[in-house]
Fold:
Amino acid sequence: MKKIMSLVLFVTFAVITYGQQVRPANSEKIYHEIAQMRHLVNVLYVAAHPDDENTRLLAWLVNDKNIRTAYLSLTRGDGGQNILGSEQGDALGLIRTHELMEARKIDGAEQFFSRAVDFGFSKTFDETFKHWPQDQLTYDVVWVMRKFRPDVVICRFPPNAMAGHGQHAASAIVAAAAFKKAGDKLQYTEQLSTYPVWQPKRLLLNTYRFGDRNTTSEDQFKLQVGQYIPVLGMGSGELAGQSRSVHKSQGAGTPSVAGVQTEYFKLVDGDSLSKSLFDGIDITWSRVDRPDIGSDLDQVAEQYDFLHPEKSLPALLAVRKKILEVKDDYWRKEKLGEIDQTILDCTGLMAELYAKQPQAVAGAVLPFTLHVIARSHTPVILSAIQWSNGDTATNLRIPLDTLLTFEHPIAIPADAPVTQPYWLSMGHTIKDMFAVPDDSLLGLPETPDNLVATLQLNIGGTDFAVKVPLSYKKTDPVKGDVVEQLRIVPDVSVSFNTTLLVTKPDGSVQADVRLHAYKDIKEATLTVDGPKSTVATIKGINLSAAEDTLIPVNIPAPVSAKQGADDYYLHAQLAAGDKVYNLSQHLIQYNHLPTLQYFMDPFTKVVRDNWKCTVKHIGYIEGAGDFIAGFLRLAGLDVDILKESDLTNAAKLKKYDAIITGIRAVNVEKKMAYWLPVLMEYVKNGGTLVMQYNTLQDLSTTKLGPYPFTLSDKRVTEEDAKITFVDPKSRLLNYPNKITDDDFKDWVQERGLYFASKWDDNYKPLFSMHDEGEDPLTGGTLYAKYGKGNYVYTSLSFSRQIPAGNKGAIRLLMNMISVGNPGAKVGKPVLGTAIN
Structure:
């Protein structure tokens, strides 16, 4: 045991693993690692959102020039749109975070983030800095610069209106401020105990032509990129298309463009340049007075055998000894990390440690299987295995290309935290900024996985420590092997069946609380609290592991009334013994991503019904994902999700009082081009069709209505923008609910997006609105009579307002679907049940 501990003390670097297995890089990647090891230089690219980065330039720097490059995205894309599903806000940010990480796996760059929350589209940096504290954001960017130490910093956007988005411009403003402050020892002194000051050499703007915006000029510095890279079988422009196309939630599929193309750069600050991005920067090992190491690595690269990478091991091990002698702390540490990874890759080492269940609670003991294999004639000795609950001394030479298997029970530490994105663990603090539990996490793309076992290896006489994460592995009949992080969960997840409830006509509330136990729970007590008092206490609850239990909670009208006259929130928690459980588990699962888990406070919003509706039976056509159909069911309406078989003949639709299309339905459902004529016939025969917004990108048809109209990219992003009623006598504004200015209070994120810019005279616009300093927009909602029926096209952001329980938006939506029932009795619908 003393020998094992001494090995731990003398290990200088524990190799970082990618994904949930330790796997060797392929031969091309190993050659790239050796080539990159020859360069002592870093490049940092800075912009605002996932997909803002110039993937072509990143791919060229990393794969053609073998330069270590990273992208700093200020946000995680939380405020954007989701073409894949209904996730919004923090959940969408989690999706886009991992899409960026998948993109970086393809183009080879690294990834950083700040704490900024994407609050949605903004048109000016002034508006952006009303949401983001500029100094705190600059602090984050300085932290990344001091940690990553880039010699060259490149901004994607200019600090003005040409950026096309207030957050874009803000990213340039913050980068310029951080460029000056990162090297100033009087700025953010609390960082200096972790990272010393660092002054990048130059700050550049990577200029561009986007649509009608052109920031390039022929007197700017130019680079030719996209050259063919034989070991990849493609140019960096082609690789960039693959990388960018991983942003699937944004519908950002991008062509892979072959051939050489020009990139333009404008100097913003720092030293000028004329020949290279690295003019005046020594990017060789002479930077640390060790040109001999550079010469040795040149020789390793020249003699590299693509069929037998393991032949490079003796030379790499010799170079490693020299790197240990480098006096510069930063470059010694960085290059040791790089060469250790390359050495392990050359051995063909694979290690995986997995259980057969996807999640576990803290304190549980699970059986694990460890597989280890090495493919190298240079001896690889497995000296010991450090499990989380003990060590195993082995002193075993791993036989060439022979899989070793170890079975071992592992106890999950009793204090292991639940698996949770660190930036969501404490919510938002100052304005639209995430709270971070510890500065050491700043900039990281995801929470470090500390649940590992450590292999103590000796390779050619040199000791290495390799961390192998605790994983879950299964064989999927379609995907084959699926290996994911072992997720730590609480003993029980507590959640309401829906995050929105509607009061019954008598004022009472019916809620359902779902308890999913991961271990047996005895004699527990469920408490549901309103803002003024506890509304329900249910005792004697017994739960069995791996089972769902649904607890109905009936809140009588008098108890609900005590919570106040306004809408209110309910919060739930479960107590058992001395433990309290108040986390609601949420999983996100898409084929292009690993399973993502996050937790929220178990809550639901109770909305007091103040609207009228004259219809009952609604047809709904799914789009990119929204909460409209679910809410209408909560409000007591019968809602059918329409399928292709329903949309072959208008006669089949006659039974519906109204039909609603989901957001971006014409973008994501290509059959809408065939369905819309049927829908128009339904309207002509007396039906009501309400179409929610679509975007300009990849429309299946431009014939969206019974008469022509044209969409634009115009939007109103100020959620409190003044609304003017263009046609105050319109039935849509008066029946069955009188719409007033009050109905536009407390909207979230925006008023609407992708407004119509031109329309036939048969359409009547309802509203005029605009962001500060801009011209009025009247194409947010268009209404037309067609035949016996009614057609409404609305770009208002119902998809954000309805989940937020905004009653003004609800009342307006009820008017839209009720517009075709003039003779119906105005009243409140019978309430339905909660939805999943």
Notes: The first strand starts at residue 14 and ends at 15. The CA atoms of residues 245 and 335 lie 32 Å apart. The chain has 17 helices and 46 strands. The radius of gyration is 30 Å.
